[in-house]
């Protein structure tokens, strides 16, 4: 095959394309063929690089064709990319030729073209085996000539300059020993800086900055070179890049990081950087807050990165700058930055030793002592001005190390204790207590950082702080006593609050003392706890005194579970018993006190513990330490319930206790994620909340073999029953059972459950209620879910208030399919969920007179879960067909039933419709929605039924606590669009009935109202753009105005007024033409007098006035004078309304009308 020629390459020239990422050309297919042919010819000895270069010279020396020059050099680059074995002589020839070409001493116009290709060629040559590193000097020398007086380098494109920097960086790093030997570091640094003198492009600086950082760190540069380098890069600080937000942010962050590396790359730069930053900060009035913050951040980084000796040399200068920023600055961000720097300086001074330990001690001690002395003097001389700011400084320094803390404490604390005896002003006493809190917090932070054992922590405590233990505890205790005295005063609450604020830091400090091991004696701990509890129970519940006392007790409990178990909880329970004993007459206010105290116990106890118990953890715990307090709280309150059961008059307290348990469980389980508690338990045989689950169930339900008067079945088998109250014979109330059910719901859906360790799965397979099982004939006991899976469903319907909720919240198995097949198998309801739903529906229809509304709604929730979570509509029923077929048969057979039966049936259908739309069940949605729409037909049903059915439409898209992701139900967002499509026939029926009303045909007005009520139940949850896809704006406005007149449904009327408000706000051009009718309709709502009362409730009247105000603001200039007069008259009537909210809205509307420009 004949070898291709250079001329063929030149003839095949196409559009040049280079990848910005790897600097590699993308060649066309023809170019690849030619390059391969010439490369093979060189390998086979048919030609040489020198001959090829001679052939190329007629093109690369032609100054009239600059593109031709680049194309010819591109061929040489393509060949060098394809061959590796080239002699050293030929490489030298090529390098020498192109080095002279770059130098261009004769100012040849052709030599300034194709520089990018030459630079890439140098880069490729440096990677070849035959490349002699000594050639690096020739290449670098030629590149440096680009930065001559003609500024050729400055005029190059960004891409070419970027390639030049890349090649320079490569040789500076790989062959630095040769370059430094041939040129010396001064010439190399000067050459680099000449190239980068005018550089502003981010992509280029991202190469220059790391190179400067490298040579500053690894080259032995002299002072002049380092000063030149610092001057070259410090001018870029702080980095500011314009352009696209995301891209500029990325570049700014990347360049800032590289520039920071430059500044800290050599300790010598500290002598330049610190004076530079100090000088700028001494007058930062003209700087932006962002720039000032960046300077502080840079100083902090320098302190952390420079050597300890360098930081020691500049520590005094930095302190003299920073202290005035903290003392005098009004910018909190600046103060925070300065405190961080001070802490970093202190940490740096102690992080390693000088060559002599004494020097280290002298430097560190001198710095910390100087700060402590100056802060002490400021606090003593002018406490009102400098106490708090100096306190923050000493906290920052003291929290850096134990040694620093001892120095600060020894210097500061004696003066503070002496100062406290002379202070009379409440504000000064508060600031002094706050400073003490800063000191204690610093010590606790040091203990937490070291993650020490109890013995180690006790050793650490035997420092400077121990010397002042007596005075410190006395001072804080006296403050708490004073705080308690204020809480018992009979002065107005406002005065109490102001006085109490002064002592809040004392409460916080005492809580910190509990976190210091063995600092307080047990007697002192007990006294402090008693004082705090008295503050808690005697102070007003909604005041700052109560809040701070509660906060202190909570912090003590979280960090010292032993104190909580031995002191806090028993004392609070004693207070609770005292209130109950006193509450013999059950006055409302006293019952409220009991509820409030229970809430306080919940807020204190129901948080994960942050410290291990010294005595180990109790039997039955599921993890090392984090739920001690909660377990104890639950155990004691469950015991209280048993006590309350013994007295009929105390049953209300049992219910209040379950409320507290529910609230506590909500708080505790909700905080597990934030405290990073693992879901895995230490003992896989122990289930999450097992004790709580089993005990609360035993207090609610029991096993029964004897059918009573409440039974609806002749079955003789065992079943779940409501527990009877001991010695009274009465059953537990629904409210109690409902609360227990909600407790089981939270436990069942807790993230602590796993597929292998799930409490619901266990108790759906074995009996929980073992107290009445005397033999083993019951197949390991009665299954918890017998009530909801067996044909004789609901022997005692009220049991469903408890038994259904575990199924609602159960967590599906991790590897289950979307229909939860494996989960249903595990629960024992696979392929039977449809039958469960059918039996439940039949029971609901048969028992409508025997169950109350709360029980009925709970069972309806169960139906929803079967459809939305367990997809029971797919199951084949025992008698054949699907659940949908069964529902349709019920509807067909209902024509001869009573209205009450039909209303209950449609209630069931409404809940089923909601569930089917939530899970986007395509087989169920359309049919059940059609059935629900049929319930609106006034020719088939009476007006009450139509109205009830219409009102049920608002359930379909309403937020549900059952159909939610918390219960592992995937609520599909697509349902809105599909539902809106299905709603089109309702619009048609509404228009039809509207025409009949205008023709005065019969009593069709009720039918029209039913469709209006149904439509707004759906439209209220739709976004306006989505609505306008199925109905025109004109029709929507007319429908909305008609809806504001709907009768006997204030909710629907209010929603239509809200929709009208949205239309006026978002579609003013389409609503302005209806302004007269809008005003008329709203006036009909707002006019409320004895002679002509309004048909709207308070909410509707207020909403109508808001619409009128919006009309005035949007269209005030177009209102006719007579309309303004009529508005003013009606607003005057509204300002005399019996409700204050309406009067206020009318007044605002009147002001808007007055300020309309004429």
TrEMBL record:
InterPro entries according to UniProt: ARM-type_fold (IPR016024), MMS19 (IPR039920), MMS19_N (IPR029240)
Pfam families associated with the record: MMS19_N
A GO biological-process term: DNA repair
Lineage top rank: taxon: Eukaryota
Residues annotated as domain MMS19 N-terminal: 55-328
Location(s) in or outside the cell: Nucleus
SUPFAM superfamilies: ARM repeat (SSF48371)
Purpose: Key component of the cytosolic iron-sulfur protein assembly (CIA) complex, a multiprotein complex that mediates the incorporation of iron-sulfur cluster into apoproteins specifically involved in DNA metabolism and genomic integrity. In the CIA complex, MMS19 acts as an adapter between early-acting CIA components and a subset of cellular target iron-sulfur proteins.
Protein family per UniProt: Belongs to the MET18/MMS19 family.
Full protein name: MMS19 nucleotide excision repair protein
Species of origin: Golovinomyces cichoracearum
Source organism phylogeny: Eukaryota, Fungi, Dikarya, Ascomycota, Pezizomycotina
């Amino acid at each position: 095959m004949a070898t291709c020629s250079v001329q063929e390459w030149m003839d095949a020239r196409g559009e040049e394309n280079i990848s910005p990422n790897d600097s590699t050309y993308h060649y066309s297919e023809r170019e690849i063929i030619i390059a391969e042919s010439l490369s093979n010819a060189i390998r086979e000895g048919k030609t040489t690089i020198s001959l090829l270069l001679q052939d190329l010279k007629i093109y690369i020396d032609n100054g009239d064709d600059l593109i031709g020059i680049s194309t010819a050099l591109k061929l040489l680059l393509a060949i060098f990319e394809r061959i590796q074995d080239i002699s050293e002589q030929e490489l030298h020839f090529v390098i020498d030729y192109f080095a002279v070409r770059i130098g261009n001493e004769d100012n040849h116009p052709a030599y300034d073209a194709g520089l990018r290709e030459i630079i890439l060629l140098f880069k490729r040559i440096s990677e070849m085996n035959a490349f002699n590193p000594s050639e690096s000097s020739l290449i670098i020398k030629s590149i440096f000539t680009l930065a001559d007086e003609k500024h050729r380098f400055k005029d190059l494109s960004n891409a070419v300059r970027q390639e030049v920097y890349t090649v320079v960086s490569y040789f500076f790093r790989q062959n630095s020993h040769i370059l430094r030997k041939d040129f010396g570091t001064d010439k190399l640094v000067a050459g680099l800086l000449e190239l980068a003198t005018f550089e502003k492009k981010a992509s280029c600086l991202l190469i220059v900055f790391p190179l400067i950082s490298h040579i500053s760190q690894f080259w032995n540069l002299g002072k002049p070179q380092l000063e030149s380098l610092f001057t070259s890069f410090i001018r870029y600080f702080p980095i500011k890049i314009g352009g696209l937000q995301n891209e500029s942010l990325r570049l700014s962050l990347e360049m800032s990081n590289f520039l920071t590396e430059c500044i800290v790359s050599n300790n010598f730069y500290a002598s330049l950087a610190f004076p530079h930053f100090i000088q700028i900060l001494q007058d930062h009035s003209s700087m932006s807050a962002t720039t000032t913050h960046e300077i502080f951040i840079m100083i902090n980084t320098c302190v952390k990165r420079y050597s300890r000796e360098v930081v020691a040399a500049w520590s005094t200068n930095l302190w003299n700058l920073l202290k005035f920023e903290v003392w005098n600055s009004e910018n909190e961000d600046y103060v925070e930055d300065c405190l961080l720097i001070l802490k970093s300086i202190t940490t740096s001074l102690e992080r390693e030793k000088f060559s002599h330990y004494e020097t280290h001690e002298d430097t560190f001690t001198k710095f910390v002592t100087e700060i402590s002395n100056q802060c002490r003097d400021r606090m003593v001389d002018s406490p009102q001005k400098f106490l708090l700011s100096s306190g923050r400084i000493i906290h920052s320094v003291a929290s850096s190390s134990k040694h620093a803390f001892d120095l600060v404490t020894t210097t500061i604390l004696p003066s503070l204790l002496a100062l406290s005896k002379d202070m009379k002003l409440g504000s000064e006493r508060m600031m002094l207590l706050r400073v003490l809190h800063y000191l204690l917090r610093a010590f606790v932070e040091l203990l937490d950082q070291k993650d020490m054992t109890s013995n180690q922590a006790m050793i650490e405590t035997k420092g400077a702080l121990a010397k002042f233990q007596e005075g410190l505890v006395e001072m804080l205790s006296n403050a708490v006593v004073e705080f308690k005295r204020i809480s018992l005063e009979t002065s107005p609450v406002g005065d109490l609050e102001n006085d109490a604020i002064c002592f809040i830091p004392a409460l916080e400090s005492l809580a910190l003392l509990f976190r210091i091991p063995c600092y307080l004696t047990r007697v002192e701990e007990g006294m402090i706890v008693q004082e705090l509890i008295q503050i808690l129970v005697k102070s007003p519940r909604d005041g700052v005194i109560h809040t701070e006392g509660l906060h202190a007790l909570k912090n003590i409990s979280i960090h010292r579970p032993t104190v909580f178990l031995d002191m806090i909880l028993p004392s609070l329970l004693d207070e609770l018993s005292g209130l109950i004993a006193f509450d013999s007459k059950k006055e409302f206010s006293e019952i409220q006190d009991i509820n409030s105290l229970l809430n306080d116990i919940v807020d204190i106890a129901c948080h994960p513990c942050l410290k291990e118990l010294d005595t180990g953890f109790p039997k039955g715990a599921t993890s090392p330490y984090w739920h001690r307090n909660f377990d104890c709280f639950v155990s004691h309150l469950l015991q209280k319930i048993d006590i309350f059961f013994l007295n009929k008059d105390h049953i209300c307290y049992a219910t209040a206790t379950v409320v507290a348990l529910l609230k506590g469980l909500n708080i505790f389980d909700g905080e597990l994620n934030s405290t990073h508690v693992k879901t895995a338990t230490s003992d896989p045989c122990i289930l999450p909340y097992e004790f709580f689950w089993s005990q609360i169930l035993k207090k609610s339900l029991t096993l029964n073999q004897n059918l009573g008067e409440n039974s609806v079945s002749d079955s003789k088998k065992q079943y779940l029953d409501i527990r009877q109250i001991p010695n009274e014979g009465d059953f537990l109330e629904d409210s109690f059972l409902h609360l227990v059910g909600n407790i089981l719901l939270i436990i069942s859906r807790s993230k602590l459950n796993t597929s292998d360790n799930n409490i619901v799965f266990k108790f759906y397979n074995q009996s929980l209620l073992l107290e009445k099982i005397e033999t083993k004939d019951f197949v390991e006991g009665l299954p918890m879910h017998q009530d909801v899976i067996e044909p004789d469903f609901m022997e005692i319907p009220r049991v469903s208030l408890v038994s259904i909720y575990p199924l609602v919240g159960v967590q599906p198995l991790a590897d289950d399919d979307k229909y939860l097949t494996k989960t249903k198998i595990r629960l024992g309801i696979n392929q039977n969920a449809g039958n469960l739903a059918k039996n439940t529906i039949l029971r609901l229809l048969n028992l409508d007179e025997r169950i109350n509304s709360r029980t009925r709604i709970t069972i309806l929730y169960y139906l929803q879960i079967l459809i939305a979570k367990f997809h029971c509509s797919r199951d084949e029923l025992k008698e054949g067909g699907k659940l949908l077929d069964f529902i349709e048969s019920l509807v067909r057979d209902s024509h001869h039933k009573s209205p009450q039966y039909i209303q209950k049936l449609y209630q069931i259908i409404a809940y089923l419709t909601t569930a089917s739309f939530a899970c986007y069940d395509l087989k169920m949605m359309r049919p059940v929605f059609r059935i629900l729409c049929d319930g609106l037909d006034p020719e088939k049903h009476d007006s009450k039924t139509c109205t009830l059915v219409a009102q049920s439409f608002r359930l379909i898209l309403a937020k549900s606590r059952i159909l939610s992701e918390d219960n592992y139900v995937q609520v599909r967002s697509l349902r809105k669009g599909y539902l809106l499509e299905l709603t089109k026939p309702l619009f048609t029926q509404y228009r039809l009935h509207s025409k009949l009303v205008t023709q005065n045909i019969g009593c069709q007005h009720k039918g029209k109202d039913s469709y209006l009520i149904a439509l707004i139940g759906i439209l209220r949850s739709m976004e306006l753009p989505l609505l306008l896809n199925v109905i025109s704006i004109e029709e929507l406005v007319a429908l909305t105005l008609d809806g504001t007149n709907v009768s006997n449904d204030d909710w629907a009327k209010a929603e239509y007024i809200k929709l009208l408000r949205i239309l006026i706000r978002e579609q003013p051009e389409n609503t302005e033409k209806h302004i007269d009718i809008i005003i008329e309709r709203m006036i009909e709502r707002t006019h409320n007098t004895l002679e002509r009362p309004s048909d709207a409730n308070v909410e509707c009247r207020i909403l109508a006035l808001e619409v009128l105000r919006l009309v005035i603001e949007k269209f005030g200039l177009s209102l006719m004078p007579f309309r303004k007069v009529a508005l003013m008259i009606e607003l005057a009537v509204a300002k005399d309304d019996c409700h204050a909210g309406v009067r206020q809205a009318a007044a605002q509307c009147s002001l808007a009308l007055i300020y309309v420009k004429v």
